[in-house]
Amino acid sequence: MIETSTPTMMDSTEPAHCTVCCCTLVNKILMVLFMVLLIVAILFGNLVTLAVVLGTKHFHTSQGYLKASLAVADLAVGIFVVPLSVYAEVYLMVTDSAPEWTSYNSQSVSFHPCNVIGPIFAGCTLVSISTIFLLTIERSIAVLRPLHKDAVITRKRTTILIILSWVGSFFLAVSPMIFSSEIALEYNSCSRMCNYALGTIGEFPSQGWNILLLFPAFDFTLLGGTVVINMISLSSIRQHSKRRKHLAEAESQSRSKPTFSDIKAAKTIGTLTVAFTASFTPIAVFVVGNVLGNVWCNFSFFAFWILATNSCWNVIIYSVWDQKFRLCAHKLLMPFQRRDTTKT
Fold first, then answer.
1. pTM of model > 0.90
2. What is the gyration radius of the CA atoms in the chain, in angstroms?
């Protein structure tokens, strides 16, 4: 999402960066193939998730609504963000010159494709973080206060929180463009993505950097809170598991205890948190490096695309941890499997 004002792909004064992914024709082909496969994985995985959540009554819960919101955010990355990078890289390979819009940033023209794609990527990333935070809160209440779960966690409240998370996330995503004339969007030759950048490099530190640092500050505040809440919930789960071994069967199934499905869901959200934290950490390291004046071109590419791959991990995590999700997904895909078998 955030990057310094490094030379763009067609900068007339400096040559484009030769990253490890793009120095040879073979590397370029492999990079485009990776992007295309990522699009397929994101679309397939998140469409299956939406179909299972929306098409199965069992998942018409607060947790299901939050998972659907997360799937929509990930789906937007596969529909808008990655395809623009594929277009730019294929155009460059076919014509041996990059699209014209990659040679300038958004401050140079009235409309730039990155004016749309950049905030979408940033906004969807922020939505993912805030949704995982809300999922963690929802599961912690189910584990720590099972008797109050139905009264506190309602579908109406969850819907309101989802709307607020989308509005707040996209407001934060466009705030650099609103509150600072120093910040522009560009298609960066290092990350091969639309990134925020300082349009004109002024004296350091600048107001632009203070605004851009809102992203990692917001992200790691929520991620830190999510990790702490997960640790408390998992600690409670371990204590409950120990107690179950020493209690009678009737008492262990008391309504004052979290259900097995609640425990399983809490572990799933914990896994989601770990996966997202691992994928976002390289971006945070890169931003800190930029603030200190470093330009890590190769690291930039890997950091941004590791974050993008997170958009297809959710359905894998659900499939591993949630047996009901696996069964519903299998039933959903059975007609296609039968069709393929008939053709063969």
1. no
2. 22
